[in-house]
Amino acid sequence: MIGIAVNGAAGRMGRTIAAIARDLPDVRIVGGSDRERLDDEAAAAAGFPRIVASADAASVVAEADVVLDFSSPAGLLALLDAPGAPLAGKALVVGTTGLGEAQLERLRAAERTMAVLVAANFSIGVNLLLALAEQAARALPAPAYDVEIVEAHHRRKADAPSGTALALGRAVAAGRNASLESLRRDGRSGQTGERPAGEIGFHALRGGEVVGEHRVLFLGARERLELAHVATDRALFAEGALVAARWIVGKGPGAYGMAEVLGLTAKGEG
Ligand code: NAD
Question: N or C: the chain end with fewer CB closer than 10 Å?
């Protein structure tokens, strides 16, 4: 039986993970943490035996084999820096997106002592799409083919472009033996002039209840290739995160990705 704790337990993903884990015989949700403690009734309604404040995460994490983080960049830092270093000896699965250098640096330090898996997207389809995007980018090089990545999400999403869109951009850049940082272009407005060769454009749509849609376009002079993925239920991500949680328990210190969990190879995943 694998004990799982969730940081960001009271959120949409936290609740969905708890709901799915309830029906799994080999997994037990030991508790959660969030920005603030929830009373027992509210925690039970979210599917958790208890939800403590992130600063008190040690009490919940102590019972877990693996911790899933679906909170926010600040929430992830709160977990990593929680008093008592609760993550020591545990495995960590991070689904939170919009991570900056502060989080990435702390994760790199954590990877030296524990197993850490970071994935912007836990669906098998998107992880396959990462591999396909890299393959397509290799076969359809710049400047003959321009790449634009379009994504759509619900109105409450906090970060843009999505972590998945950026992972797709990294996959395309990897297929062209380049780094995304030098090619990234977030949206266009005003007198933009001619499109620079090799640029990778990102466009984010926000609205309604869209779970997550991603489209990678390779635009050539006489043809256009489009690779697309549509998520229709966030349970998809929760299921994938639980697959990752089962997989990572018992792994040695280091950085892991969904490509390894799913037996795919996508260098662009981050
Ligand atoms: P949400 O806003 O519904 O839930 C986030 C939860 O984290 C909330 O309960 C909030 O109180 C808590 N939180 C925020 N800041 C915190 C802090 N400083 N300390 C402690 N807790 C804090 O969001 P969501 O839709 O559940 O998504 C959570 C994260 O997961 C986002 O970054 C989202 O982009 C990402 N996400 C990833 C995947 C994936 O497959 N990797 C899928 C869906 C969502």
Answer: N
Alpha carbon distance 14, 174 (integer Å):
32
96 alpha carbon – ligand 1 mean position (Å): 6
- Confidence class of residue 265 from pLDDT cuts 50, 70 and 90? low
Give the integer Cα–Cα distance in Å for 10 and 4.
15
User: Do residues 216 and 189 share a domain?
Assistant: yes
- In this structure, the answer to whether residues 133 and 60 fall within a common structural domain is no
Q: How far is the CA of 75 from the centre of ligand 1 (A)?
A: 8
SS3 15: helix
Q: Which helix (H) or strand (E) holds 185?
A: strand 184-186
Residues 133 and 104 in one domain: no
Range of the domain at 142: 124-231
Cα distance between residue 18 and residue 212, in whole Å: 20
pLDDT for 19-41, tens place per residue? 999 999 999 999 999 999 999 99
Q: Same structural domain for residues 147 and 59?
A: no
Indicate if ligand 1 lies below 6 Å from the C-beta of 13.
yes
* Whether the Cβ atoms of residue 46 and residue 10 lie closer than 8 Å to each other: yes
Overall domain count for the chain: 2
Do both 148 and 255 map to the same domain? no
Using a 6 Å cutoff on CB, does residue 96 contact ligand 1?
yes
The model's pTM is: 0.91
